Amino acid sequence: MTYQSAVKCFFVSQHNLDLTQQQIGARLPNAQVVFNPFAVPFENPISRVRSDKIKLACVARLFLLDKGQDNLLRVLSKEKWKRRDVEVTFFGEGVNKQALVEMARLLDVQNIKFAGHVQDVAEIWKDHHALVLPSRSEGLPLALVEAMLCGRPSIITNAGGSSEIVEDNVDGFIARAPTAEAFDEALERAWSRRHEWEQIGRRAAESIKKIVPFDPAAQFAKMLLQIADE
Questions:
Q1: Model-level pTM greater than 0.85?
Q2: Rounded distance, CA 164 to CA 184, Å?
Q3: Could you read off the pLDDT tens digit of each residue along the chain, which spans 230 residues?
Q4: Residue 71, SS3?
Q5: Which CATH number fits domain 54-208: 3.40.1350.10, 3.40.50.300, 3.40.50.2000, 3.20.20.70?
Q6: How far is 65 from 88, CA to CA, in rounded Å?
């Protein structure tokens, strides 16, 4: 078997490693979890957003099967979210952009924007209070790691390895399932504690720096060199 005969197998989350072992029906003692390189500073979380309006960022490619932005629109279509002073910006590009635009129009969701791809990820978190990521499936979302490093709380689903780095109600908020109902419940919990988001974001930054290395690319390169020398 390819996995078992490989010198080393790398996965981006323990969830993906466990899932692969279950799907192939075999243990992989040659497997290891590694982290992708991130595009924000490791130190010094970004300062607070000075805005009366709550601004949320959904940072993900626009691909509904994995990222679940349609469920977020279903949540935002509820009257309570239409009444609240909150705005969601979708960052990223993808094949389902037009579908999302038309779905928002159908559901009369007006408190959203589409900002496309942004090269400087840290700039996103200068203007947004928290990450919303309603994913149906994940490995370990780089957007989540970057939001945490920037000192922002996250509202996410229990998909992939996300719950491996976020503690529910401590440094983020986790929906129990990738459904609109579950995500609405998590977002409601987050909303009720929005005055604590700055402290929650600081805890998120402290927590993620204990998990991801300062330079994941250098660490991975070192692993590959060690393998080559064996």
A1: yes
A2: 21
A3: 788 889 999 999 999 999 999 999 999 999 999 999 999 999 988 988 878 899 999 999 999 999 999 999 999 999 999 999 999 999 999 999 999 999 999 999 999 999 999 999 999 999 999 999 999 999 999 999 999 999 999 999 999 999 999 999 999 999 999 999 999 999 999 999 999 999 999 999 999 999 999 999 999 999 999 988 87
A4: helix
A5: 3.40.50.2000
A6: 20
